[in-house]
């Protein structure tokens, strides 16, 4: 990502707030964000409360991209009721092997995020399937 440090800090805070609103615990957020092995769960507090940005690493950036895509798809799916997003994240889903979307993301990492995003966002699913044609 080509952002200033200030922009990265703002993005970090927004992503942490999103994960908080979905009910993800700090230890879960470490996994969802694909932070390096050994990252303590308390590090999430520094991202939440201080001027510290997430590491500028490919896996972290990809997870942020998917989190933002999922959040956007949830806003589109439930435009009249934003309180549904956290509820939906905790409901078992037959398309996710009867797991909740949040547990799919925690347990499967990036592939789980792609699965959740694909389920929610048909345009993303179309693009990622290779079905779209680019002129």
| Strand fraction | under 5%
- What's the average pLDDT? 91
Share of helix, binned: 55-70%
Q: Could you give the count of β-strands?
A: 0
The shape is: globular
Low-confidence runs: none
What is the oligomeric state here? single chain
Order of helices and strands: HHHHHHHH
Number of domain modules:
1
Estimated structural class: mainly alpha
InterPro entries: Xre/MbcA/ParS-like_toxin-bd
Protein name: ATPases
Organism: Thiohalobacter thiocyanaticus
Pfam families: Xre_MbcA_ParS_C
Give a verbal description of the structure:
With 135 residues, this protein is mainly alpha-helical. The chain has one domain. 62% of the residues lie in helices and 0% in strands. The longest helix is centred in the middle third of the chain and has 20 residues, at 58-77. The chain starts with a helix and ends in a 6-residue tail after the last helix. Residues 74-121 form the Antitoxin Xre/MbcA/ParS-like toxin-binding domain.
Give the topology, please.
Layout: H1 5-21, H2 26-32, H3 43-49, H4 58-77, H5 84-89, H6 101-108, H7 110-120, H8 122-129
Helix pairs in contact: 1-3, 4-7, 6-7, 7-8
Key terms:
about 140 residues; mainly alpha; 8 helices; globular; about 0% strand; about 60% helix
């Amino acid at each position: 990502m080509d952002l200033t440090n200030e922009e990265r800090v703002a993005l970090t805070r927004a992503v942490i707030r999103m994960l908080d609103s979905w009910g993800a615990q700090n230890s879960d957020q470490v996994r969802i964000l694909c932070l390096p092995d050994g990252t303590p769960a308390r590090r999430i507090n520094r991202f939440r409360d201080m001027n510290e940005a997430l590491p500028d690493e490919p896996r972290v950036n990809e997870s942020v991209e998917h989190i933002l895509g999922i959040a956007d798809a949830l806003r589109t799916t439930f435009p009249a009721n934003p309180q549904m997003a956290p509820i939906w994240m905790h409901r078992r889903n037959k398309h996710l092997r009867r797991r909740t979307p949040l547990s799919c993301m925690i347990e499967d990492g990036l592939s789980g995020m792609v699965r959740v995003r694909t389920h929610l966002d048909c345009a993303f699913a179309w693009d990622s399937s290779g079905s779209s044609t680019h002129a």
